[in-house]
């Protein structure tokens, strides 16, 4: 039997926990970046660090991959003490994603993704083949592999950043505000994509953000930091919102905001309909209302304008979908509000359409969950 520090994810790969044992970091000027941290980031789960600026989130994250050396205490990856690992073991164990992706500007996308495997001894050819597969996995067209970073949008660059961090198939993924530099719509898409990907890869993810909504949406466990590099509370999102350990946590997490609760409600209770869906191969005439046009595999083409026939391909892009049962009610509501039809588009893990839901039909699903909140 495996110890709690070393488990297997759904793909049968080993996953490891990240443990802080009485870890402190005192900078040269005496500032405490982290103070006596005791923390367990469970294997195969997403742990999100939140807290006001300067409270030690980045310091704590960077001590995991030794970009910052603790003054005292130790950090364990599974059973291995990080301070004793050599360079290649660190690279193999941990992927790192940062804001603005931090890609090498003079390398193609494929070579950016292939960087770590090549450093670890994989041939260029083999690493590029793997990189193509990873591009697909993070939702990028492999044809972009020959481009350079400046030829990609901010959101696409972030996806490359994630692919690069996953390239050596590390059990641990460290993400420091990875989605902060993109607009809110793209940010929502990247969050959905990460949740979808995590269902497949089941990595141990440690994620830093300033955004409480992002934390609630992504986290299995949230760590709230406070001034001086100490931890105010560690809890699952719903516990944090229902039972904040202090006034500071209540104010910081916004547990008294009704809208936040939407992020805790699963989307699986929504009743879907295919009524306003039309296939490109249909020779139907125009309809007075918006419809969602799909290809024959239920891939989304876009919102078909009222009055246009399916074959005209007179569409505007479907800006936001939600992954049914994976994304929360807030993502479903976003999807409906951002659609010209006022309809939320539910997709499966492959991004194919499952069905649509209008705003009134979201309400019963929200009502059904409301009673669970008032514990
Ligand atoms: N090299 C350094 N020398 C001295 N103090 C530092 C150094 N790096 C960080 N600090 C201080 O340590 C504290 C924690 O910084 P850290 O960057 O970890 O906070 P953070 O929570 O990630 O902040 P933000 O949300 O603004 O990114 C801050 O007071 C910061 O000013």
UniProtKB/TrEMBL annotation:
SUPFAM superfamilies found in the cross-reference section: P-loop containing nucleoside triphosphate hydrolases (SSF52540)
Keywords for the protein's UniProt record, in alphabetical order: ATP-binding, Nucleotide-binding, Transport
Domain of life: Bacteria
InterPro entries: AAA+_ATPase, ABC_transporter-like_ATP-bd, ABC_transporter-like_CS, P-loop_NTPase
Segments forming domain ABC transporter: 18-252
Family membership noted in the UniProt record: Belongs to the ABC transporter superfamily.
The protein, known as: Osmoprotectant transport system ATP-binding protein
Organism whose genome encodes this protein: Arthrobacter bambusae
Pfam families: ABC_tran (PF00005)
Keyword Iron belongs to the record: no
């Amino acid at each position: 039997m495996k110890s709690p520090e070393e488990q297997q994810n759904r793909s049968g790969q080993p996953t490891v926990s990240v443990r802080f044992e009485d870890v402190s970091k005192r900078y040269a000027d005496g500032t405490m970046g982290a103070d006596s941290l005791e923390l367990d980031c469970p294997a195969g789960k997403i742990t999100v660090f939140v807290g006001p600026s300067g409270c030690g989130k980045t310091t704590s994250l960077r001590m995991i991959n030794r970009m910052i050396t603790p003054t005292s205490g130790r950090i364990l990856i599974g059973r291995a003490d990080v301070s004793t690992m050599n360079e290649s073991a660190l690279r193999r164990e941990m992927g790192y994603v940062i804001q603005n992706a931090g890609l090498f500007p003079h390398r193609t996308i494929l070579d950016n993704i292939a960087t770590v495997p090549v450093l670890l001894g994989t041939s260029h050819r083999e690493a590029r083949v793997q990189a193509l597969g990873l591009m697909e996995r993070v939702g990028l067209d492999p044809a972009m592999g020959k481009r350079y970073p400046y030829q990609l949008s901010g959101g696409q660059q972030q996806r490359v950043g994630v692919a690069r961090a996953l390239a050596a198939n590390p059990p641990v993924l460290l993400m420091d505000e990875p989605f902060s530099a993109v607009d809110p719509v793209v940010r929502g898409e990247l969050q959905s994509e990460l949740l979808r990907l995590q269902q497949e890869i089941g990595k141990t993810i440690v994620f830093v953000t300033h955004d409480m909504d992002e934390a609630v949406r992504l986290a299995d466990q949230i760590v709230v930091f406070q001034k001086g590099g100490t931890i105010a509370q560690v809890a699952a999102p719903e516990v944090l919102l229902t039972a904040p350990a202090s006034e500071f946590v209540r104010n910081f997490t916004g547990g008294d905001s009704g809208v936040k609760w939407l992020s805790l409600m699963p989307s699986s209770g929504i009743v879907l309909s295919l009524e306003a869906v039309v296939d490109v191969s249909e020779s139907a005439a125009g309809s007075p209302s918006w419809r969602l046009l799909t290809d024959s595999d239920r891939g989304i083409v876009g919102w078909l304008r009222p009055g246009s026939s399916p074959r005209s391909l007179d569409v505007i892009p479907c800006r936001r979908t939600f992954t049914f049962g994976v994304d929360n009610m807030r993502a479903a509501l976003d999807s409906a509000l951002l659609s010209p039809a006022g309809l939320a588009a539910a997709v499966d893990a492959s991004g194919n359409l499952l069905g649509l839901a209008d705003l009134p039909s979201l309400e019963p699903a929200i009502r059904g969950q409301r009673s669970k909140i008032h514990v």
